[in-house]
Amino acid sequence: MDIEPSFFETNPQAGAVGQPLDRVDGRAKVTGQAKYSAEYNQLPGLTHAVLKTSDVAKGRITGFDTSAALKQPGVLAILTHQNLPKLAKTPNDADGKKAIGAPMGFLPLTTDQIHYAGQPVAVVVADTLERAQHAAALLKVQYAAEKPLASYEDPKAELFDPEAVQDGKTKGHTVRGNPKAAFAAAPVQLTHKYDHAINHHNPMEPGATTAHWEAADRLTIYESTQGVSRTQKSVSTMLGLSAEQVRVVTKYLGGGFGCKGSAWPHTILTVQAARAVGRPVKLSLTRPQMFTSMGHREDQTQTLRLGATKDGKLTALIHEKTSTTSPWDNYAEPNSKIINLLYECPNFEASYQLARANVMTSTFMRAPGEAPGSFALECSMDDLAYELGIDPLEIRLRNYAEKDPSTGQAWSSKSLKQCYARGAELFGWSKRNPKAGATRDGRLLVGWGMATASYPVHNSQGTARARLYADGHAVVQAGATDLGTGTYTVMTQVAADALGLPVDKVRFELGDTKLPTAPNSGGSVAAGTVSSSVYMAVQDVWQKLIKAAVLDKKSPLYRAKPADVEVKQGRLQLKADPKKGEEFGALMKRAEIGDVEGNGQGRYGSGYEDAQAAANADPSKKDEAAHHSMHSFGAHFCEVKVDPELGTVRVTRWVSVHGAGRILNAKTARSQIIGGSIFGIGCALMESTFRDPNYSRYTNASLADYHIPVNADIPDMTVEFVEEHDPYINAMGVKGIGEISMVGVAAAVANAVFHATGKRVRSLPITPNKILETKAASA
Amino acid sequence: MNNFSYTQATTAKQATGIRKDQPAAAYIAGGTTLLDLMKANLEEHPQLVDINLLPFKGIEQTKDGLRIGAMERMSDVGEHPLVVQQFPAVSESLLLAASPQLRNMASIGGNLLQRTRCGYFRDAAFSCNKRVPGSGCPALTGDNHNLAILGTSDSCIATAYPGDLSVALAAFDAVLTLENAKGKQRRVPVTEFYRLPGTTPQRETVLEPDELIVAVTIPVTPHARRSTYLKVRERSSYAYALASAAVGLDVQGGIIRAARVALGGVGTKPWRSPEAEKVLTGAPATDATFRAAAAAALRDAQPREHNRYKVELAQNTLVQALRQVAA
């Protein structure tokens, strides 16, 4: 296809793209018009389901006493493993799990076995929510309880070396170079352990499913998910239906952070409940249930051995991670990936150890792997800086990776040096006192820390559709989801610019499997893939109109070669003689073309260079695109004030600078980086779910007791982006910013705490007890 | 939540009368604690008695001190000029608690009766001696990082009152006025209102079933006027204290004439420390004195696996609070 890929390259600030446009869905949200998945209350005969979950973490269900519950008025059904309608496939075997794309190799209510506390044991359906809740409380479940295992830290836990972790996506053991010998020979050797608490995503909107069987073989689900297509695939596969028979709708999402990236058990259980009662069923997880229903970031210990020369150059990195997984799955977030590529280092080794325990399977949570991996690496880099008396920023520059050390590939683009420089300038890093524990503000100790951020541009494809009307408005669609971060808004901007229309003439629709397939909004892929799909769909519209113009005798472009025609701001014109041409509206009205539909595909690795290669029929250039390593980079700078007697840490200044390709909206992007940084500050200072070692059950499953930051914890934050043009990643040159915003944040905070106090806290979160219990490093 | 009946009481007699006949009934004012407990099926009450229309309002100076009606809201009391002037620690303890929304709803009487945040109490799947007497206490060997180190027993180590106001009230000799179904009133000092858990952690206060808290009276003293409430927590707002201190000093010529000390977050009840007050009284207002007082206050601490840090934290909190009021 002959397209004009350079539009955005040559007109970076041409129109709406990049501008700080207010959210187009803002009014709908603040006026309550935006409908979330648990708000489809007008469905005919809607009923309400409540999950009854297990009190014990291990054992067997020996019986149910449903008599009192069933006697309650309005109670329609109680589903248990004894009467759950049979499924075509379950994730309980490896093939089923793979076909379904299930995050967990176990579906509750398929057996009497209890494997984790909070496991659903029954679904109670009633005509009102209150009646369902009350009946669930009256339902009595008898258990034969056994003593559970709570984590890898239990002396009885059996550690094993998995062949692969993260559902087979990451090898259990990786070696590059000769790390052991290199470490042994290193003049500087650091070995440190890092602990990480269990974290839960806790989006504001809990997981929710509204299931409506419109016919025996036709189902619509209003689902709180980051990906309607993935949910469609999972649910249809379990039911033995074709994908087309299951429609999934997610118009608005109140956050996800990874926990809504897969179809968890409550979704199919609600679907089955709707089948059982023959009416639509709504289920919304309670906040306590959110701690045992949609995964978590696993409890983990990392050991990082770092070898370096006396001038601070890395010679070896050896990383070991031990973590807890479920009875069925080998899940561990891949911490080693970022350690393998963030700095130039010729020798590298990573290995994973797992222990099975009575917990549900952990899952990806914002920057899975990169976030905890960078905590270990970036604290150890800080140690190295102090050890050698080199500035922490300088030590990073000395180890700057000019190409990807893990693959040897060139970077598609990398602006990390600019991020360092700009961040340091904004923060005033050059004024830093190199000595730890030496700066005071009254009784408070003041510390400055920094850390590097990086996140990959993941392989991803998607499609979109654009329909342009003769009167100058357009509807653009993709089955993407907006996590609340601005997908509606930025896609409107992209479409408006591509079409040469004002943003208020473009409506962008998403969140429905009836729309062209888009990827999950996860792994930071949505912005890049969907925007590229939209852009390509508009190019398809133009191609169709160019064809119409050159065949139209009344058009100034009649008989021109399509390849000689370009479209600028909605005007079709000759490249060689731009005066010769016409507006699309004039063409469409005259030729009585009511509307034109275009379809486009956004592809990973199909950036400007790729398009040029295609245009110039130069396959060698096209191959080049595939041979690049594609990552975003950034830097965080943090000031903390620590009360040395009370152990309280407050972040008082924050600067983040990122190079993440094209930024589609200055305001929503800044907000997303701020949100991610706050997410990271929460992880650094307060987020921790405690699993009782004897009962393997959480003791703080509420937002009163699981602390996430409040406004008073967060200072004004400075966020900037380095202008970056990446010719390889995708048609729009967008890398995505959902995850990079929190990578390195915990380390920046921990490094600032060290600078303030001389105390190296290697255990997250850094709560007051740890400040008090950690001894200062001897100067 | 169980089904329950709801009655709006218009007189105290009506309210206390219902509780006399039906001890399992509960009073509801702001409902900020009660509804949470009922939704989690931790408390089941066949009847709720709404006491919001009862006339226990007003903040007024009396010969015994400042009298605060039990139906006053936390926010109104915390911001009241007489409270701010005469009892800075009380005002601060209220305004550092909960969130603005909760403070606008919660009554003073209800605040005094809030229940522990111990995770084992708050989840009915765990055994808990406070909830089900004799069932056991998993907190002893489990998550006890924010549980008590003073006044504990083998039955319970929960900070039964997890809040802030009662800590300040305990420090400044506040007295509760309780009224029963016969309309008879009695006065109980806050320090005697809460029980230690002992072998009966389910009995948290001396309140009889048919009694209602109708007022709190705080004597006006120089040490209460020179007071503060210092609260240490894991985030800057909307969190329970890891440790807190309500202190007041009357310092003349560098010598402490009178001292009041109570600790929060560390005791099974709001922890008045006569030991610390004894060290402080008559001593010079110096750091050495404050340190000695803090050591005395925590002398009997019995920490467990995850709350050892509280011994040091509580001492440092107390010292810092004393420094603040002495300055």
Automatic annotation (TrEMBL), chain A:
Residues annotated as signal peptide: none
Region (Disordered): 1-20, 601-628
InterPro entries: Ald_Oxase/Xan_DH_a/b, Ald_Oxase/Xan_DH_a/b_sf, Ald_Oxase/xanthine_DH-like, AldOxase/xan_DH_MoCoBD1, AldOxase/xan_DH_MoCoBD2, AldOxase/xan_DH_Mopterin-bd_sf
Keywords per UniProt: Molybdenum, Oxidoreductase
GO-annotated molecular function: iron ion binding; oxidoreductase activity
Residue ranges of domain Aldehyde oxidase/xanthine dehydrogenase a/b hammerhead in the record: 31-147
PANTHER family reported for this sequence: ALDEHYDE OXIDASE 1-RELATED (PTHR11908:SF132), XANTHINE DEHYDROGENASE (PTHR11908)
Protein name: Xanthine dehydrogenase family protein molybdopterin-binding subunit
Organism of origin: Hymenobacter persicinus
Automatic annotation (TrEMBL), chain B:
UniProt GO molecular function: FAD binding; oxidoreductase activity
UniProt cross-references to Pfam families, sorted A to Z: CO_deh_flav_C, FAD_binding_5
Classification via InterPro entries: CO_DH_flav_C (IPR005107), CO_DH_flav_C_dom_sf (IPR036683), Diverse_Substr_Oxidored (IPR051312), FAD-bd_PCMH (IPR016166), FAD-bd_PCMH-like_sf (IPR036318), FAD-bd_PCMH_sub1 (IPR016167), FAD-bd_PCMH_sub2 (IPR016169), Mopterin_DH_FAD-bd (IPR002346)
Keyword Flavoprotein: yes
Gene3D superfamilies hit by this protein: 3.30.465.10, CO dehydrogenase flavoprotein, C-terminal domain (3.30.390.50), Uridine Diphospho-n-acetylenolpyruvylglucosamine Reductase, domain 2 (3.30.43.10)
Keywords tagged on the record: FAD, Flavoprotein
Occurrences of domain FAD-binding PCMH-type (ranges): 1-223
Protein origin, superkingdom: Bacteria
PANTHER family xrefs: OXIDOREDUCTASE, XANTHINE DEHYDROGENASE SUBUNIT C-RELATED
UniProt name for this protein: Xanthine dehydrogenase family protein subunit M
Annotated source species: Hymenobacter persicinus
Highest classification ranks of the organism: Bacteria, Pseudomonadati, Bacteroidota, Cytophagia, Cytophagales
